[in-house]
Write a structure and sequence with these properties.
two-stranded antiparallel sheet
Length: 518
């Protein structure tokens, strides 16, 4: 099997999916939001109260940092199941029977993921070029100022990410939501290391050279020290002082750490190839069954007897009344099925601790509770596509009771996990927190059902929810705190929940009409 065609097929399969288009949309939004106007009231790349003018050097560096940080997050969840998809779609049987080696297959998949990530990063770089012309602070596009950071920072980091997408997909215990949470923690670790300890060997992202160089030039320009370069969301009041930054002088000494991480990536892929079981799940040797040469004649004799008998089927009775309770019960049982006993014991322990711990102690870690049901919520709206029963389920009845029962089941899961928190809020008289929390657990399954119905995959909700949770309830960024622990936005999230529910209903009805007209 030719490696080129294997890579080409993997790339073409991915770019034709809705999650890829959604990622492109998020990328274009980042290209706009991360180059704020002078009157926007916030900054993204901030150096002690000053920033560089929007020239090619500054925006090329910001584009490299944005693509490195956020593609590591969104790109991982977009591409992390390429091998699992081959197994689910029965392509793995062809791979097993082919002459392609494990090393060739693993490296081809990794390089295909690298190509997809590079395409997205290239689109982001072009978006930053457009924003440079739109902001108008410097109308001259210097191509090398964009391409240099792209080659020396972005591409090595994306190759490291590609190796992780394969590594997390060949180890079975890393394939599910546990692997997603582990990688999310890994992403936070690498991002913090790149900002706080740029010379560390654990600096896999590598954009520290841009931050440190820009900070050095800003300190020289304004005759100040310890300005402190930061990357994130920073509200500002009034205009921000600017200076002209000429970019980084790239040389081979900068590449030393990048080459080390490229070598680590190759080692990770080799380990993945050694662990890869080539889609064989059976352990040991199976016993050979004795072949009965008369078996075909016996089957024919049985079939003749069955044809001679008459069968009376129970008539189908159409009921006008919809029974929601059995539907909700069935959806709830499907949701909680398949998890280990340790998961249930952990949830029970969290409920008890939340109910009996003092409120001041509980508030410091209460936001972690909402992470527990992520594996359950992420499956909402995706089971039909995963098990190839979409047409059957949608055509089996009206969409309204099915969507409502699924939404109520998801809401019930949130209420069960949050039972101790709700009881504690009632005992302490914290009605504002109680209201915010209830609206928050209404919003989460609604978001999960909307994203799962549109994308058909668990990954989109998991990445968006984890990032939203980290920025909102954990860090208190305005309008992202859906639990109301630091900021109260009950009306905003209540309206968002209603809008998402209306969208889900309309989308489900559209799907039903499309299937009925096939």
């Amino acid at each position: 099997m030719n490696n080129f065609y294997l890579i080409k097929n993997s790339v073409m399969k991915q770019i034709r999916t809705y999650p890829f288009l959604i990622t492109i949309g998020i990328t274009l939004f980042c290209g706009y939001a991360f180059v704020p106007a002078a009157t926007a009231g916030y900054e993204v790349f901030y150096i002690g109260g000053v920033r560089g003018i929007y020239n090619s050097a500054w925006l090329g560096g910001v584009a490299a940092m944005v693509s490195t940080i956020f593609l590591w997050l969104f790109g991982f969840y977009l591409l992390r199941s390429q091998i699992s998809d081959d197994e689910r779609l029965k392509v793995g049987q062809i791979i097993t029977a082919s002459s392609i080696s494990n090393v060739r297959y693993i490296f081809s998949k990794a390089f295909a993921n690298f190509c997809i990530l590079s395409i997205i990063a290239s689109i982001l770089m072009v978006a930053f070029m457009a924003m440079q012309l739109l902001r108008g602070e410097d109308d001259t596009i210097q191509l090398w100022q964009y391409v240099g950071p792209f080659i020396f920072v972005t591409l090595p980091a994306l190759f490291v990410l590609s190796s992780f997408t394969i590594f997390f997909d060949v180890f079975r215990w890393l394939k599910g939501v546990i692997g997603n949470i582990i990688f999310f923690a890994l992403w936070i670790f690498f991002a913090v290391i790149s900002i706080e300890k740029p010379t560390s060997l654990f600096n896999a992202l590598g954009f520290d050279v841009i931050m440190s160089n820009a900070e050095k030039d800003a300190a020289t320009e304004f005759a100040m020290s310890n300005l402190g370069a930061s990357f994130g969301y920073y509200p500002v009041d009034g205009p921000v002082q600017t200076f002209i930054w000429h970019g980084v002088d790239w040389d081979f000494s900068i590449l030393t750490l990048r080459l080390i991480w490229l070598l680590i990536s190759i080692i990770i892929l080799i380990i993945s190839a050694m662990v890869f079981n080539r889609f064989k799940h059976s352990k040991g040797h199976t016993k050979k069954k004795n072949i009965d040469i008369f078996q075909p004649y016996k089957k024919e004799e049985i079939s003749l007897k069955e044809q001679q008998e008459e069968y009376n089927l129970t008539p189908l009775i159409k009921k006008s009344r919809i029974r929601f309770i059995p539907l909700i019960k069935a959806e709830l049982l499907i949701m909680v099925k398949g998890f280990s006993i340790w998961m249930y014991l952990l949830c029970a322990s969290i409920i008890l601790l939340s109910a009996f711990l003092p409120l001041t102690v509980m508030k410091s870690w209460v936001s972690f509770i909402i992470i527990l049901p992520i594996a359950i919520w992420s499956r909402m709206g995706t089971k039909e596509k995963h098990f190839f029963t979409k047409d059957l389920i949608i055509s089996s009845g009206p969409s309204f009771p099915r969507v409502v029962s699924l939404w109520i089941a998801g809401l019930s899961v949130g209420c069960i996990v949050s039972l101790g928190v709700l009881i504690r809020f009632i005992i302490e008289g914290q009605m504002s927190h109680l209201l915010s929390w209830v609206i928050g657990i209404m919003f989460i399954p609604t978001l999960a059902l909307a994203l799962g119905s549109v994308s058909g995959t668990k990954k989109l909700f998991e990445i968006i929810f984890l990032l939203w949770w980290y920025l909102g309830p954990m860090n208190g960024i305005p309008y992202l705190d859906f639990l109301g622990m630091m900021n109260n936005y009950e009306v905003f999230y209540l309206i968002s929940t209603v809008i998402l529910l209306i969208f889900i209903m309309l989308y489900s009805r559209k799907q039903a009409n499309e299937i009925n007209f096939k």
